[in-house]
Amino acid sequence: MDIYVFVSVVSLVFMIAGVLFILFSIVLPYLKKGEKSKQREERILFLRSFKKGKMGIICIPAFALYLIGILYSGKTLTVAIAETIPLTLRLLTLGYRLDPVRQLSEACPIYHFTMVFVCYMSVVNASLFAISLFEQRISFQFSTRNRKTSCSKIMDTETCWIFGNNTQNNMLYNSDPEYGFKRRIIIDKFPYGGDENLFLKGIHYGAMGTLEEEANLLKDYLEHLSDNKQKSFTIVINWDSDDSNIDLANTYSKVIMDYASGKTAEEINSSLSKLSIFIFGNEKYYSIYNEIEKKSFGCFIHVNKHRIISQNFIWNHPFTDVLAKDCIDCDKALLREDTGINVFMIGFGKTNNRLFADLVSSNQFIIEDKKAEKGCRPFTANYYLYDSKENIYSKELDHNFFRYLDFYNKHKDDGRYLPMADIPANVYQKFNTDINSPDFYKSLSTVLGTKKKDHNIFIVAFGDDLENIDFANKLYYKKVEWNIPCMKIFVKVCSSKYKDQCCSEDICVFGADREIYSMMNIHAQGLFNLALYADMEFERLTAETDPDVPKVADRKWYTFTRNNIERQNSYYAGINYKLKLGLMGLELVSDGTDGIISNEEFKEHYNKCRDSLAIQEHLRWNAFMICNGYVPSTIKEILNPENKGIVHEEKRHGYLTNHDGLDQYASLLSENFGKPKEVYDVKKYDTIMMDRCYEILQSQGASIKRKDS
C-alpha cells in the first residue's frame, strides 16, 4: 500500500504546483509594467495555450494514477498500460472513468482524493479555453449591437468609428489616449466571432453592415448631433483599397447632402460642426477626394499620409532653423545678401512630390539687394529633383507648379494681366540619375553651394528605412570629404527603432509611422485650431456688419461658403507662423518657458518688420496658389462684378500678382465700381495673421521667446 500512497502524494503535489503555476501565469501580467493590451494578450494566450501545450500538468499524474490503480486490481503491466492510455486521453474530452481503479480508491482515501482532483483539473482546463472563446464572441456581438443601438444612449460622450482592420488603424486606435475619445471602435466585415488579434489586444471592434445600413445609422446620429448636449462624432475611413474608401465616402456624402437639404445655415452648423469624417486616400486620386470634400459642408477631410508627413516637416523644420544666424536680418525679417538655399530631393516619389509643393508654398523669403528699387527683392530657392526613373513628371506637378510656369513664360509680358507673380522656385530636374552611379556624385558636386552663406538641404526618401539611412550617412561623409560649410540632411524613416542608426546630428529623421497614424495628427489638432483662427481673422476683415465674427466664420467653414482651397490656405497660414517668427529671431515655445517676451515687446519688434512680413505673406499665398494649380485672371475678368476674377472652378484668381500689383488691383476696381480704393485693398489679408499673432498663439497655450535667450 505504501507505494500507492507515495505515488498519490507525489501526483497531488505535482498538480497543486500546476494550480499555482496557472494562478501565477494569469496574475503575473497584472503585476508587470507596460501596456495594458500586452498584459491582456499574455494572459489570454496563456489560457488558450494551456489547452494545447500545458497538458502535462494533468496527463502525467493521471497516467501514473490510472496505471497503479489498474495494476492494483490484478492486471499485468502490459494490459495496464494498454488500458491506461485511452483512459488518460478521455480526460481531455471530459470523459471520466473511475470504475477501473475502484478497488484502490476504496482502499486508499488519498488516492481517491487525488483521482477526483485530476477530474476537476480537466474541467478547469477545458473551461479556461471555452471561457476565453466565449468572451471573444460575446464581446464582438456586444460591440456590434451597441454600435447600432439608439444614439441617445451612447452619444453622451465623444465617439470615434474607425473603418478598416489593418495595422495603421490599430495604431490610430491606440494613439493619443489623452485625446478625449472615450468610445473608439474598429469596424470591418469580420466573420462570426470577430478577430482574435484585436480581442487579444483589448481593441473594441464590431461588424460593418451594408452600405444602406451604414447610411441609416449615420442619419440617426446626425439627428442627435443637433442636440447641444451631444458630443463630437468622428469617423475614420481607411481601408487598404481606395475603391472601398470612396464607396463608403460617397454613401456618407449623400446622407450629409440629404440631411442639409432644406435646413438653414445655423441648423446645418449646429450638427455638422460636430461631425468629422477623415478619409485616407492616395494623392493620385486627389480630384476625386476633393469632390467628396466639396459636397460635405466641411465634414470630410481627405487624409493623405504624405500630406501629414509634409505638414509635420514644415511645422517642425522651417528653413529659418537651418539658416545660419548671420544670414537673417531679424530687424527687417530679410535674408542677408549672398544667402543661398539649395534643396536636393533624392527620390521623387509620393513623399517628396508632396514635400516639394509644400516646401515651395511655405518657405518664401525676401532678400537684401542694394541694386533693387526698395533695397530688397523676392528670394528664389533652388530645387534639384533626383530620381532613377526616366522622367519624374507627375499629373500633380503638371496641373499645379508647371501649369503656372508654362503660363508665366507665355504671358509675363501680356498687357491683359496685372504684373505676374514671381516664379516661387527654380526647379532643376535630374532625370534618370541613379544614386549608385558615379554620374550622381559628379552632378552633385557641380551644383552644391560651397560659399559661406550657401545652405544645402537634402531630403532623402527613395527607399526603405535602411536604404535611406545608409545613403544619408554616405552623404554626410561626402560633406566632410568635400568640406561643404552648411549641409543639413533629412531622411525619411518610418520605424523609429532605426533613428539611432544615423551617423551625425546633422542628419534628422522624419516621417515616422507613429506620427502619421495618430488621432492627434489626422485631426492636426494644433494646426486645425490655428486654421480656424486664421479663417476667423480673414472673416473679421469682411464681416464688419456682424459683431459675432467667430460664429459667422464657424458657420461658413461648415457650409459651401468656404471653398476647400480657402480652408487649406488657412492651414498653411497657421503653419507659417514658425518661419515668420524665425525671420524675426524669435521662436515658439510652451507656456511657462523662461525668457518669454510680452505682447508689448513683440509688437515693438514686429512693427519694425511689418512691411517685410506682409510682402513675405503675399509671396507665401502666391506660392500656395501656384502649387495648387492657379493662374492669374485677366484684367477683364477681374472687373467682372460677380466674382472679381476669382473663379475656383477654373483655378483662376485675381489676387495672383506681385505685391505692387495688388495696388493696381484695388485701383482698377475702385475706378470701375466707383467705391473707395480701401474697399478693394486686399493687402490687409497679408498682415492680419501677424497683427494678431501673439493673442492667437497664446490662446493655443504657446508663447514667444528670443532664440538666443
In short:
Helix content is 53%, strand content 13%. The termini are far apart.
Furnish the topology, listing elements before pairings.
Blueprint: H1 2-31, H2 36-53, H3 56-72, H4 77-91, H5 102-107, H6 109-147, H7 151-154, E1 159-163, H8 167-174, E2 183-188, H9 196-200, E3 205-207, H10 211-225, E4 233-237, H11 242-260, H12 265-272, E5 275-280, H13 286-294, E6 300-303, H14 305-316, H15 319-322, E7 328-329, E8 334-335, E9 340-346, H16 350-362, E10 365-368, E11 376-379, E12 381-386, H17 395-399, H18 401-411, E13 425-430, H19 438-447, E14 454-460, H20 465-482, E15 487-492, E16 507-510, H21 513-516, H22 519-523, H23 525-540, H24 549-557, H25 564-575, H26 577-583, E17 586-590, H27 599-608, H28 610-626, E18 631-632, H29 635-638, E19 652-653, H30 659-673, H31 688-691, H32 693-699, E20 702-706
Parallel strand pairs: 1-2, 1-4, 2-3, 4-5, 5-6, 9-12, 9-14, 12-13, 14-15, 15-16, 18-19
Antiparallel strand pairs: 7-8, 10-11, 17-20
Commentary on this structure:
- This protein is of the alpha/beta class and 709 residues long.
- The protein contains 32 helices and 20 strands.
- The strands form six sheets. The chain has a six-stranded parallel β-sheet, with helices on both faces.
- A hairpin with a 4-residue loop joins strand 7 and strand 8 (334-335).
- Helix 1 packs parallel to helix 6 (109-147).
- The longest helix is centred in the first third of the chain and has 39 residues, at 109-147.
- It starts with a helix and ends with a strand.
- The mean pLDDT is 81.
